[in-house]
Amino acid sequence: MSPYWILLGLIAVVVIYVIVLYNRLVTMRNRVDNAWSQVTVQLKRRWDLIPNLVSTVKGYAEHESKTLEAVIEARNAASQVASGTVQQTADAENVLSGALRQLFALSESYPDLKANQNFASLQTELSETENKISYSRQFYNDTVMTFNTAIELFPASLLASQMGFKARTYFEIDQEQTEPVKVEF
């Protein structure tokens, strides 16, 4: 066998490897983008529920306008950041989650509000949406981990950055969000 055919065979193997690698990374990048769009769908659902929830609470807790305004401001800020980076969205959503926790803690002080069917229904729907958001975040972060690992492994790491593939950011919550809500009257 001549060296020419051996060299041609090696070149063909390298070209095929690069094509397969590129296609694999494109598929993974698209999965990350899809996972992020699923997160934003659930976040939008949450944003749409919040005005109804706030208007229900307003009738029972008129003198708690500070909490209600904080929820609305956080909701508006989060919906405006929706087209931003993952980190900007995560930060805005963390503020909104904290405001919602304050709102639900406030509802504990109003038995009539807790007994209101509309409030209970909205609270249940929001709770289900929060679960969907949690699942979507987890799926997104798992997909990001798979993608980031793929572009960091050797030999893909040698080519990935040259082909335009960059590591993606995880959607993380603030440490403050894991602490219990403090309600003061």
Folded structure, characterized:
The protein has 185 residues and is mainly alpha-helical. It has six helices and no strands. It has helices at 3-58, 65-80, 86-107, 111-115, 117-152, 156-160. The protein is rod-shaped and about 90 Å long. The chain starts with a helix and ends in a 25-residue tail after the last helix. Residues 177-185 have low confidence and may be disordered.
Entry keywords:
185 residues, mainly alpha, 6 helices
Give a quick summary of the entry.
The protein has helices spanning 3-58, 65-80, 86-107, 111-115, 117-152, 156-160.
Distance between the termini: 88 Å
Helix-strand topology string = HHHHHH
How many β strands by DSSP?
Answer: 0
Q: Percentage of helical residues?
A: over 70%
Taking all residues together, what is the mean pLDDT? 83
Number of helices: 6
- What amount of the residues lies in strands? under 5%
- Rg estimate, integer Å: 24 Å
Assign the structural class, choosing from mainly alpha, mainly beta, alpha/beta, alpha+beta, or little secondary structure. Answer: mainly alpha
Provide the low-confidence segments as ranges. Answer: 177-185
Which shape, going by the Cα principal axes?
A: rod-shaped
Q: In this structure, how is the largest beta sheet organized?
A: none
Chain-wise SSE layout:
Layout: H1 3-58, H2 65-80, H3 86-107, H4 111-115, H5 117-152, H6 156-160
